[in-house]
Amino acid sequence: MRLRHAVVAEFVGSAFLLATVVGSGIMGERLAGGNVAIALLANTIATGAGLVALIATFISISGAHFNPLVTLAEVWLGKLRWKHAAAYIAAQAFGAVAGVIAAHGMFDLPLIEASRHIRTGPSQWWSEVVASFGLLTVILNVAKRRIEFIPVAVGGYIAAAYWFTASTSFANPTVTIARSFTDTFAGIRPVDAPGFIVSELMGGALAVLLFRWMERSHDSSRGVPEALNKEGASDDAARLRDEPAEQIDGAALRSAQRR
User: Fold this and answer.
1) Integer Cα distance of 230 and 245 in angstroms
2) Mean pLDDT of 70-74
3) Confidence at residue 17, expressed as pLDDT on a 0 to 100 scale
4) Could you tell me if residue 19 is inside a domain?
5) Which residue has the higher pLDDT, 256 or 35?
6) pLDDT at 223 exceeding the cut of 80
7) Are 13 and 57 a contacting pair, CB within 8 Å?
8) Could you give the CA distance from residue 212 to residue 255 in angstroms, rounded to a whole number?
9) Where is region (Disordered) located (predicted)?
């Protein structure tokens, strides 16, 4: 697949992801009548379902990253070149902002507005470390073993993380930047965004380190029985080579008689 196709897929996927996150937040808040739990539930269901659909749509074109953490992990693991990664991340960033603009247009809001939603402090930052670590751990391990489950695994994890993290699991630097341009339910103050981004990068890096360690351990443990099998086969071959022909024939005859 050509790079330009992958870049367009990352742009479109990121745009629809942010339109889903922001749009469902606006709709949920308007319909919830002040009940924040109902608004968050609506936001969660829409985002999780949207991720499943978008990843299934674009995974064969670009890998459906929609997230610089995933793209940088691919570079770290030697699966993507830096120049391709730069194009991916630019497409994700512009696509995410385009998605916010699209959502605002659908709900008759100013197309761009700085958020006033306060999201800062150690608990919020730690939540983003945990959320990002978990997301990358899921993606890397499922992609390695059962890639067909990636859409459901990612959508399901994000839906869960909306509820078990204090930050509602941004876990995506371009999502964080784009959400600073919406003064709605899904927003984050621009001044709070850097703390989230640093935390997300930390969580993603820890996940890649864990994945690399687990893969090395898995490869090492798998190599032990293989080496033993090869050693055993060599010993058998040497024994047969050293035994007299009549002894081998006698053993074969006794085996045939038993059958």
Assistant:
1) 24
2) 98
3) 99
4) yes
5) 35
6) no
7) yes
8) 49
9) 221-259
pLDDT of residue 143: 94
Report the CATH number at residue 207: 1.20.1080.10
Report residue 170 as tokens.
């941004």
Mean pLDDT of 88-104: 98
Question: Is residue 101 assigned to a domain?
Answer: yes
Kindly report the pTM of this predicted structure: 0.83
The per-residue pLDDT of the chain, averaged, comes to 89
Q: How many CA atoms lie within 13 Å of 223's alpha carbon, on the beta-carbon side?
A: 6
